[in-house]
Q: What sequence folds into this?
């Protein structure tokens, strides 16, 4: 079983348990107030394995499955001895770092909660864009693929705008900072990937 499928399996199992056990769900969701005032630092990590509902879980796992394979393929190629470790660091780093802005904003708000793997999945998506920039991304119900770098630019601008203006219950901050982390982390692992990326999109420097 691939690492992506292991992560999906664990996430689905814990999310389903959380659907049916409010006490379990409340114990592991991200609550910034509890993190600060009760030292529940584990919530920076555990919240990503629980979801708000079946649709939330389904979408996240489908996206992770779609892009996780790209990460595993390229990490195995570039880092054959450390590909599992580097993938785990990408995923966990995306989980933790993407929710730090929410912690800063809501650490004194007892009612703010967050769940879901979206920050980590954004990190995976944008790492895959750096690794495979000639790929195309297909959105739900849209039959035409969007070039990965174009999607990346549109995604970042959209999430940056929504993080400042949206009044919904979507973690736009997590999406944005997960994406940024995915880019920086991947290039930091192997700086030459930036030049390869630029060459493949036609920017020869």
A:
């Amino acid at each position: 079983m691939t690492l992506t499928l292991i992560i999906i399996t664990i996430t689905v199992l814990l999310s389903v348990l959380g659907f049916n056990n409010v006490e379990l769900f409340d114990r592991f969701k991200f609550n910034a107030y509890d993190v600060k005032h009760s030292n529940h630092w584990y919530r920076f990590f555990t919240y990503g394995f629980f979801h708000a509902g079946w649709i939330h879980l389904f979408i996240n796992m489908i996206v992770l499955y779609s892009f996780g394979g790209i990460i595993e393929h390229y990490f195995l190629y570039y880092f054959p001895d450390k590909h599992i470790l580097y993938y785990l660091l990408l995923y966990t780093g995306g989980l933790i770092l993407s929710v730090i802005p929410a912690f800063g904003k809501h650490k004194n708000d007892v009612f703010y909660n967050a769940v879901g793997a979206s920050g980590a999945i954004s990190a995976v998506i944008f790492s895959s864009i750096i690794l495979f920039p000639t790929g195309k991304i297909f959105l739900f119900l849209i039959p035409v693929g969007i070039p990965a770098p174009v999607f990346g630019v549109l995604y970042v601008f959209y999430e940056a705008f929504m993080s400042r203006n949206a009044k919904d219950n979507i973690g736009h901050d997590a999406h944005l900072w997960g994406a940024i982390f995915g880019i920086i982390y991947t290039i930091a692992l192997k700086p030459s990937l930036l030049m390869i990326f630029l060459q493949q999109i036609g920017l020869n420097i």
